Amino acid sequence: MTGAALAPLNIDVTTSMVAVVTALAVLVFGLATLAKPSRATVAWGVAYAIGIFGAYLWLGGYQLDDPVMRAGASATLFSFEPLVWWGLRAFARRRPISWPVIAFMVLGPVLLLTTAGSPIYQIAFRVLFLVASIFAALVVYELIRLRNVPRDITMPLLLASAMFVLLAVTAAVSAVTVRGLTAEQQMGILRGTNSTGAIVLSACAAFTLILLVRTDADAASRAHDDAERLRRRLARAHARGEEDWSVLAVHLDDPVDLRDALTIGTFAELIARHRAGIEKSLPASADIHVVDDTTTVIVINAGDEAVAHHIRDMLSRISSVDDEAAAGPRLSASVGWAPASALGFDYDVLLAAAGLAALDARARGGDRWARADRPAPASPANLEA
User: Fold this and answer.
1) For the chain, percent of residues with pLDDT exceeding 90
2) Where does the sequence pass through the membrane (predicted)?
3) Of residues 71, 46, 199, 53, the one with CA closest to residue 129
4) From CA 168, how far away is CA 190, in angstroms rounded?
């Protein structure tokens, strides 16, 4: 063999960032954006597309030692958090606020590109870093507000975004307090931190966002199938002239406080106790549909006295404390009861009425039930509380 000696392959944090961001973008595109297209997943797909562009631009600027390319790359990478925040609001069915995201994505590159190579670039970079951290803080806020989502899914992005805020504040404070380092040395530290942070943030975001999309899609599909089954069951009962049918909505009391106060494992055990209390109090013929961890819908064929007995037994079982759970929190629930004899056999009408009655029972202190004898003025969204 002949041959000249091959130069060793140099893989540093910059080339690693390009590889990792590209791989994560492919995962997000395939498992979220293309698999479940929506405003949220499209926004997240755009965030990763911009991330790829910024990563390659950063690599080019690093290899060519071009401050303008590095400035453009930094501004591009900072646009990731605003798009993730916009997508989270859309995912949670809250009105996305576009103007701050657009303003940041336009003015950020202008700020860094016009100051690249000048003495004030370091100040501009820190200012943009600090502004981007506001969006990171908003991401943390939106993740905390997400309902019926396990904390182990949101935790990676939540912690990474919180760390982003901490680093931005530290960078701003260090500009005033740190002495003994030249401006170029400080920028070198910031660039290294920025590259490493981009890898960590994009990885944590991909994990959280993909699981959010896949979990939400699976839950929606199961909920649709369960609702159709219950509609058909009530329709058959109505066709046979049966009258003694009811829909019950069972809401766990104080779910937000319980979720925030307990660890993931303890909360899961609590939910298991809650469901066990429901199942043990009902006859085998009752159809139980678990909407989420804190809400259950039941279709039951029984007379009024029997239904009232089952509800009282259910509340007693849920609130009772056994020996194994003696040290845990005391549970309670609110139950809404919508009888078909009074409201008809339209499942959606019964569901809305039962949900509103459950909210009324909760408003009166919880650990009780309320009966609906007329249709609710709202939609089945009453069950979301």
Assistant:
1) 44
2) 16-35, 42-59, 97-117, 123-144, 156-176, 196-213
3) 71
4) 10
Query: Higher-confidence residue: 207 or 13?
Result: 207
Backbone angles phi, psi at 111, to 5 degrees: -60, -50
Nearest C-alpha neighbor of 85 from the set 164, 30, 14, 22: 164
Give buried/exposed letters for 181-209 (b at 16+ CB in 10 A, else e): eeeeebbeebbeebbebbbebbbbbbbbb
| Nearest Cα to Cα of residue 262 among 159, 335, 331, 334 | 331
pTM (whole model) above 0.70:
no
CB count within 10 Å of CB 151 equals: 16
227-248 average pLDDT score: 86
Shared domain for 271 and 341, answered yes or no, is yes
Strand ranges inside 44-160, DSSP E: none
The two structure tokens encoding residue 364? 């009166």
pLDDT of the residue at 227: 77
H/E stretch holding 153 reads helix 151-177
Query: Based on the domain organization, do 270 and 202 belong to the same domain?
Result: no
- How many structural domains comprise the chain? 2
CA–CA gap between residue 372 and residue 243 (Å, rounded): 16
Q: Within a 13 Å sphere around the CA of 67, how many CA atoms are in the beta-carbon half?
A: 15
Residue 130 pLDDT > 70, yes or no?
A: yes
C-beta separation of 286 from 300 below 8 A: yes
Quote the Cα angle for 150-155-156, to 5°.
130
Instruction: Check whether residue 202 and residue 274 sit in a common domain.
Output: no
Its domain, for residue 321, covers 242-384
More confident residue, 190 or 248: 248
Instruction: Work out the angle between the directed axes of helices 99-115 and 67-78 (0-180°, nearest 10).
Output: 170
Q: How many residues does the structure list for the chain?
A: 385
218 contact partners, CB below 8 Å, separation of at least 6: none
